[in-house]
Amino acid sequence: MLSRQGLRNSPDVRRKRRSRQGHLNARANESVQQKIESELTMGRTPDAFEIKVRFGCGALLGLVVGLGMCVGLSPLSTLGACMLVGITVVACGASAAYFGDSFWAHLHWLR
87 near 67, Cβ under 8 Å? Predict the structure, then answer.
């Protein structure tokens, strides 16, 4: 029979303790993320015009980033440069439209 100390340090008890702590940490992170999101959007859903504006602003950022990447990767073919710029425009535009203000808040290098 295991002693109390041995029971506390058994692998099953330690695994349950870790999973419970991980679950609590995940819930705390979710609540912080929800608080940040609710402060940024004030609990409202964006309309179609706002989504288009968000996509447009993100696409402009993607254009600048894509062109900067093309300059950095200078021996790039025309097709490769167009694809690179197109991918960055779509990725930044879609991210800005979907994530909204939190997308812009997490661009630390832009400050």
Answer: no
Q: Per residue in 85-105, pLDDT tens?
A: 999 999 999 999 999 888 988
Question: What would you measure as the largest C-alpha separation in the chain, in angstroms?
Answer: 74
Q: What are phi and psi of 74, to 5 degrees?
A: -55, -40
CA gap 95, 101 in Å, rounded: 10
Residue found by looking up tokens 């015009």 in the block: 49
Radius of gyration of the chain (CA): 23
Cα dist. 38→43, 53, 72, 76, 100 in Å? Answer: 5, 20, 38, 43, 12
Is the model's pLDDT at 14 over the cut of 80?
no
Match 């097709």 to its residue by tokens: 79
Distances (CA, A) of 57 to 77, 78, 108: 27, 25, 17
Distance from C-alpha of 21 to C-alpha of 76, rounded to nearest angstrom? 49
pTM summary value: 0.60
Whole-angstrom Cα distance, residue 96 to residue 40?
A: 13
